[in-house]
Design a protein that fits this description.
Layout: H1 2-18, E1 23-26, H2 34-39, E2 43-48, H3 55-62, H4 72-75, H5 78-99, E3 104-107, H6 110-120, E4 126-128, E5 151-155, H7 164-177, E6 186-191, H8 196-211, E7 218-222, H9 226-235, E8 236-240, H10 250-257, E9 261-265, H11 268-274, E10 285-287, H12 290-302, H13 305-319, H14 324-343
Parallel strand pairs: 1-2, 2-3, 3-4, 5-6, 5-8, 6-7, 8-9, 9-10
Helix pairs in contact: 3-5, 5-6, 7-12, 10-13
Length: 344
């Protein structure tokens, strides 16, 4: 992380030496460029999607939990874990100092805001601006579903931190517990592969489906066109999301906008911002492990049609809170604070 941060400083210095703007706007998460931009006399504005380091990352190392930011070889070693905690603590201090140089820090979710406020310590200059989600086309899809087996789906890149195996296991458990009088559902994975490692993860998922004996009920779509994604999404009645600490969760908003009931991981963006009640009506379910995901799937499949449509309508209404138009309005309101201050 330190190497990447030093590289971003050099890149910023090279750019600012050729042209120095009045406003420096970082949307890539390169907080270490903020002090340099201030030295060049710029007003510094950031839009942070995900903190470079979070307090959760340090906690996982301290608790010696093996996850995407903490390799098993390190979590098994007390000495290596202690060294990594020192490294993370030092980096957190540097990250906090760099970020505090921002004149305005916009963040994309309540989860990101909580971490940025604790690390950068500029709460009065930190504003939450939800990211733009294209919900304009999705509401045109009918809430009513055709008379065929209900479809659960997952939309995401085939990356390790997305926890796709958990979804397969939960689907397998739900299938085994499903009432015999209910139609057998299908699970569709729609995602993209960036490289060889993603391809290998996709193949492991296919092998996992065979191992769980649900391969005939699971379909995989790789690198599909947007219009095809919309068609698949239009048939789904459930949308699954299982990434721990997803900073926001645009795919969850897309599920809701399309009328699919979301079953999302009980953490970060989905928990704090998205899958919340709308006008006193539940908009979906939150889960954390295989059993909870399986139970949520069964609840939706067993739900009376009128109740499901009522929940889907509430979810669609909540999704409108994260539209492109809402982003434009909130973004302008936040940036106006800097522009108005400079015009005085």
């Amino acid at each position: 992380m330190i190497g990447q941060s030093l590289g971003s400083i050099y890149l910023c210095w090279e750019a600012l030496s050729k042209f120095t703007p009045s406003y420096y706007f970082d949307t890539s998460g390169y907080a270490f460029t903020c002090p340099l931009a201030r030295i060049f006399g710029c007003k510094v504005v950031c839009y942070t999607h995900y903190p470079t380091i979070s307090l959760d990352m340090t906690s996982r190392v301290r608790d010696r939990n093996s996850m995407y930011n903490n390799d098993a070889s390190i979590s098994r070693s007390g000495w290596l874990s202690q060294c990594k905690i020192i490294y993370y603590t030092f980096f957190s201090w540097m990250y906090g100092f760099a970020g505090s140089c921002a004149d305005l820090a916009m963040v994309n979710s309540s989860w990101t805001q909580s971490h940025i406020e604790r690390l950068w310590r500029i709460p009065k200059r930190t504003k939450r601006v939800y990211p733009p989600c294209d919900t304009s086309v999705l509401p045109a899809l009918p809430l009513e579903r055709p008379a065929k087996p209900p479809i659960c789906m997952s939309v995401a890149q085939f990356r390790s931190e997305k926890a796709h195996p958990l979804q397969l296991e939960a689907f397998s458990v739900a299938i085994r517990k499903l009432d015999p009088n209910l139609p057998r559902p299908k699970l569709q994975f729609v995602g993209s592969c960036r490289n060889q490692w993603d391809e290998e993860r996709l193949q492991k998922l296919k092998d996992k489906a065979v191992e769980l004996k649900v391969d005939e009920d699971v379909q995989f779509y790789k690198n599909v066109m947007y219009r095809d994604l919309m068609s698949v999404l239009g048939d789904a009645i459930i949308g699954m999301h299982s990434m721990t600490d997803e900073h926001f969760g645009i795919s969850v908003v897309e599920y809701m906008a399309a009328g699919a009931i979301p079953i999302a991981h009980n953490s970060a963006g989905p928990k704090m911002d998205i899958v919340l009640e709308e006008d006193g009506q539940k908009t979906g379910f939150l889960a954390q492990n295989v059993e909870e995901f399986a139970d949520a799937i069964l609840k939706v499949l067993r739900m009376p049609e009128t109740e499901r449509l009522k929940m889907a309508a509430a979810a669609r209404k909540r999704a409108s809170r994260f539209s492109d138009q809402r982003f434009y309005e909130d973004f302008k309101a936040a940036i106006r604070l800097i522009l108005n201050h400079d015009s005085r």
